[in-house]
Amino acid sequence: MPILTSYFGFLLAASTITLALFIGLNKIRLI
User: Fold this and answer.
1) What b-and-e string marks burial along 4-28, b requiring 16 or more CB atoms within 10 Å of the CB?
2) How far is 8 from 19, CA to CA, in rounded Å?
3) What domain of life is recorded for the organism (predicted)?
C-alpha cells in the first residue's frame, strides 16, 4: 500500500505542477 500511496502522491504533484505551468504560460501569453 505505501508504494501505491507514494505513486499516487507523485502523480498528483506532477499533474499539479503541469497545470500550474500551463496556466502560467497562458497568463503570460494573454498579457
Assistant:
1) eeeeeeeeeeeeeeeeeeeeeeeee
2) 16
3) Eukaryota
Query: For residues 13 and 15, what is the distance between their CA atoms, to the nearest angstrom?
Result: 6
pLDDT tens, N- to C-terminus, the chain (31 residues): 688 899 999 999 999 999 999 999 999 887 6
Report the chain's C-alpha Rg in angstroms: 14
State the CB neighbour count (10 A cutoff) for residue 29: 7
Phi, psi dihedral angles at 8 (to 5 degrees): -65, -40
